[in-house]
Amino acid sequence: MSIPSDAIEIMEGRTRLLIPEAHSSKGPGKRLGCVFFNAQMAFNRDVSVMLFRTLRLRGSALDAMAATGARGIRLANECRGEYRMFMNDKDPRAFGYIQANIELNALENCEATNQDLRCHLASKVHDYVDIDPFGTPAPFVQASLQGLKRNGVLAVTATDTAPLAGTHAKKCIRRYMARPLRNVFGHETGLRILIGYLAREAAQLDKGIKPLLCYYADHYFRCFLRVPENAAAADESLSHLGYLCCDQSSHERSWSIDHSPGASGPMWLGPLHDRGVLSDMDAEKGLEERERCLKYLGLWREELETPFFYENNEISSMLKLSPHVLDEVVERLSQVGHASKTHFSPTAFKTDLPLSEVRAAYLDMA
Ligand SMILES: C[S@@+](CC[C@H](N)C(=O)[O-])C[C@H]1O[C@@H](n2cnc3c(N)ncnc32)[C@H](O)[C@@H]1O
Fold this sequence. Notes:
Shape: globular
Mean pLDDT: 96
Bound molecules: S-adenosylmethionine
C-alpha cells in the first residue's frame, strides 16, 4: 500500500482513516495539509452513516468531493447493503488518500476516481450523490441532479452560512437568487433558502425534492433530499416555496406564496424532515459522537414542522420579563396549541400559536 508521506492514522466511528497530519479541528476548516480533513465534521459524517443505513441502498453511491474519502469510506465500512461506493476528488493528492484508505480498510465495494465531478457525472449516474464543497454548493448542483438516477438521494453540505443567513445579502441573491433575512432566526431562513434553491434547480429538470433530513449545526447546513423524477413531483415541490415577512420590532411574522415588498425568499416553507426516516434512524454504538447524535435525533423527531422559531430571551425582553425556563414555556404553550424545542437554537422554541397567544402565555407565567 502506498501511504501519503504526510499521513497519520486515526479512528473515526468504526473506521480507520489516513488523514494529513496538519488538518482542521474546528470551524469551516482550512486547507492546512495538502488534502482537506476537518475533525469537527465527524458529527456530520455520523449523521450520514445513520441516514445512509435507513436508505438500504442498492446500486451505486458517489462521494463526489471526497478529499481523504473520510465520508465515503465510513459509509462503505459502517453501512451494510448491496451497493458500490465511488469516491471522487479532482485533486490527485486526494485520490492517493482515497486509494490508501480503501486499502487500509480492505473494502471491496469501493472505487476511487480522480475527475472534476461534473465530468464524472456526465458519464455515470448514481442512486446517491453527496456534494461537500468548500463554501457554496451552487456551482455543482445542476451536475449532481443530472447525475442522479430516478428517485435517487442527493446530499448537500453548504458552509456559506453567512450569505444564506443574511450577513452578505447580495452574495445570497447572486448565488441562490433569494433575499435572506438577518435576524435571530436567520439560520432557519438560510436553510430554507438553500432547500428552495435546490427545489427550483430540480424543477428545471422535471424533478421534485422531498426533504429526508435538513439541518443546521456548527458552521454548516446539510440537506438529504429524495429526488423523484416527474413533472407532477416538480410542481408539488414548487408549491412549498414562498416568502417571509417579518416585523423586526414587533417580531410578528407571516408567510405566503406571493412576493410582497421587503419580503425574504423565495424559500422552502414545507417540512425539513421525513418522520418515517427519522424514526428509522438509530444512533447505534460505534458512532464517533454518539451522545450528540442521540441529542439531535431527539430534537429533530420532536421539532414542529411550523416554519420559524422564537427566542425565549427576545420575547421575554420585549415584554420586560426575565426569561422563563424554556421547558416550562414549551409545556405551557402545548396546553393551548403545539410547541416544541428546535435544533436551530438551544434557547428557542417553535409553536403554531399566533404571537398574541405566545405573549399572553408569557405574561400569565410571570
Ligand atoms: C470540503 S472538502 C471535502 C471534505 C470531505 N467530504 C470530508 O468529509 O472530509 C472539498 C473537496 O472537494 C474537492 N473539489 C473541489 N472542486 C471539485 C470538483 N469540481 N470536482 C471534484 N472535486 C472537487 C477538493 O479538492 C476538496 O478535496
